[in-house]
């Protein structure tokens, strides 16, 4: 069956639309436009579609992926135009292409994500670089995480899940550009980085002072596009 991937941006007020609600938006668009999305078999069939990695509520992104299957082949340019016309204003399709791979799904091959974390900072870029370098120089960086199975809060080590980082300043904001583990094999939420860094730095900030944008998603070598290169 034909398999396609939509690469899109999610910004503005749409960052407050959850990934489940956005998935419902795409489902409705496919239904309204008559696109013959393939359904699973069984008692409760559902469309064969899904995001590569969920995006946390309140995060913006310039690099999201939605994969889906159709019963018949379609022109990617026509599909892109029809779908874009029905999307919310701040959800912008960057590309739509046929996806030929033996991989089960993009989600199964997720490897890492790049995030840009921005926060108010009155000091210089050099002083912020020293501050974050000191944070990363710790022998251990631990944070409290809610475990999926037990639903309890447990302390976890996160330093080895931060693959690379760099910092810079622009005006009154400081930026942390980091690549974090992402996927079923190993996953680190930016929330744990933010919480542990604010605790370490003792900066007088609240969580709502901090913004997060996902800028790239990386996959294993089984996927033919965008592999991790640790270029930071």
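Sequence proposed for the structure above (232 residues):
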């Amino acid at each position: 069956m034909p398999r396609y991937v939509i690469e899109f941006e999610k910004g503005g007020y749409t960052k407050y639309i959850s990934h489940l609600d956005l998935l419902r938006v795409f489902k409705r668009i496919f239904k309204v436009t008559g696109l013959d999305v393939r359904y699973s078999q069984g008692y409760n069939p559902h469309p064969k579609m899904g995001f590569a990695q969920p995006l946390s509520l309140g995060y913006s992104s310039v690099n999201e992926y939605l994969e889906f299957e159709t019963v018949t082949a379609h022109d990617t340019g026509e599909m892109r135009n029809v779908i874009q016309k029905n999307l919310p204003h701040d959800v912008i399709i960057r590309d739509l292409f046929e996806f030929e791979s033996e991989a089960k799904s993009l989600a199964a091959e997720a490897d890492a994500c790049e995030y840009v974390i921005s926060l108010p900072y009155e000091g210089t870029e050099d002083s912020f670089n020293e501050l974050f370098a000191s944070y990363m120089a710790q022998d251990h960086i631990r944070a409290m995480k809610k475990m999926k199975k037990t639903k309890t809060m447990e302390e976890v080590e996160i330093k080895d899940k931060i693959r690379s980082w760099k910092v810079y300043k622009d005006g009154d904001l400081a930026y942390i550009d980091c690549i974090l583990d992402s996927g079923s094999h190993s996953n680190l939420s930016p929330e744990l980085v933010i919480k542990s860094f604010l605790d370490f730095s003792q900066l007088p900030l609240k969580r709502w002072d901090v913004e997060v944008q996902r800028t790239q998603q990386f996959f294993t070598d089984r996927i033919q596009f965008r592999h991790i290169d640790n270029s930071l």
